[in-house]
Amino acid sequence: MSSGTVGIDRHADEAADLQSFYDVRRSYEDNYREGPFGAFADVANFATKHPADGADKTAPTPYDFLGQQLRTPFGIPAGPLLNSAFTDAAFDMGFDICVYKTVRSRAWECNPFPNVLAVHPKSSDGFLEPGGLESEEGVLADDRYERPISISNSFGVPSRDPDVWQPDMQRAMSHAGIGQLLIGSFQGSRVSGMDTKGYIQDHVDTASLLAETGVKVIEMNTSCPNEGKHRLLCDDPALVGRICEAVKNRIGDIPLIVKLAYIPDDRFLDRLVEATVAHGVVQGLATINTISARLVDSQGRQALPGEGRDRSGVCGNAIRPSGLDMVARLDAMRSRRDLDFSIVGVGGVLDAEDFAEYRRAGSDAVMSATGAMWDPMLGRRVANALGR
Questions:
Q1: Bond before 36 cis per omega within 30 degrees
Q2: How far is CA 51 from CA 44, 60, 84, 92, in A?
Q3: d(CA 208, CA 173)
Q4: Which of 143, 306, 281 is nearest to 204 (CA)?
Q5: Between the CA of residue 143 and those of 75, 89, 152, what are the distances in Å?
Q6: If DSSP codes are grouped into helix, strand and coil, which group holds residue 171?
């Protein structure tokens, strides 16, 4: 499997001084209220003053993704696009698929600040092996952001109340130009005293709230802790299948994507494929989210403060080989089983060559979170590479 590192230094000097559009020095709440920042803030301010000069309304749309015609099959996944101010700027900067930050059926608090740290795997290429010795014993995390960039992702899937995010999601959709798509992401919320039936129903209720906004594609997140400490919903294929069937019965013809974590075992991955896309209730699989690792400071102490935060999801350059591996294996399963579903490749996309490598591996669409956060021109770079 190719590393795909070629090209990351190509734009390093040009982008080195750019501020991330999500300011890691500020709290999640400050980012939600005051963001985006850097070049995203500049384009957002321009669009506010010149609304007719926003997203291109006449762009060619040669790419089909889940029935939607796109200018490019590239965008930003759920995570850094906190609200319509962020998605508006992302669309205007040329990211043609924007996934609105994962929402819930109820308001949900963010993990304590800080949520993002720079992560420094020891390997010369900066990659991190899922479940490997380093990820278990400790990976250095601090505030030294270096390229190729990898970061922690320790937010805890915060959400506004539906009374807030529903109208804001509708505003976000209205800003998308021709050939652009807003995807609504959600996950179920397990609370004290909730049984499995209630947990399934919470997924259904949240998906229904999303459908009410008129969103054209819905993504269900199964790759963040849902079942207790460090446990993922996608660790239980049978439950994922039950939830997907119940959700699909509620949302009808709206395409449903399921987001997965890294799954090393092909037999287990095949069970997930069987429980979702093979039964026709799921139209796409997005992978990967992050790689779980124990993060430590220079003294070997827990890097992120607070109980239950000894581990965090790592994203960015460190996870690209794992993302490519998952995409290639899913593509092989799709061909072998003659299944019809879309694959969204996510993880460590830092430049246009990384985008191309994900496409060669079998991705129908590709997304970048960390790379896009520190390089707001990335959407335009990919479009230029595609001749758009």
A1: yes
A2: 10, 21, 15, 11
A3: 17
A4: 281
A5: 26, 26, 11
A6: helix
Q: Which residues contact 73 (CB under 8 A, 6 or more apart)?
A: 63, 65, 96, 97, 359, 363, 364, 365, 366
pLDDT of 9: 38
Under a CB-based contact definition with an 8 Å cutoff, are residues 256 and 284 in contact?
yes
Residue 250: what pLDDT? 98
What one-letter code names the amino acid at 141?
A
Residue found under tokens 């800003």: 175
Q: Mean pLDDT in runs of 10 for the chain (388 residues)?
A: 36 54 97 96 67 57 97 97 97 97 97 96 96 96 95 95 98 96 96 95 98 98 68 92 98 98 96 95 97 96 93 96 98 98 98 98 98 96 94
Q: Are strands 311-316 and 291-296 parallel, antiparallel or unpaired?
A: antiparallel
- What would the two tokens of residue 212 be? 């009410």
Per-residue pLDDT, 44 = 66
288 and 324 in contact (C-beta within 8 Å)? no
Residues 155 and 79: their CA atoms lie apart, in Å, by 9
Closest alpha carbon to 295 in 160, 161, 163, 111: 111
| E strand segments, 71-160 | 74-76, 97-103, 118-120, 139-142, 150-153
pLDDT of residue 4: 36
In 3D, which of 110, 106, 257 has the Cα closest to residue 190?
106
Q: Where does residue 171 fall: left (phi above 0), alpha (psi -120 to 50 degrees), or beta otherwise?
A: alpha
Token pair for 57: 């309304």
> Residue 346: CB partners within 8 Å, gap ≥ 6?
77, 286, 287, 288, 289, 323, 366, 367, 368, 369
Interatomic CA distance for residues 253 and 261, integer angstroms? 25
d(CA 189, CA 46): 37
**How large is the greatest C-alpha to C-alpha distance in the chain, in angstroms?**
55
pLDDT tens-digit map of 20-68: 999 999 999 999 999 999 999 988 665 555 454 444 556 799 999 999 9
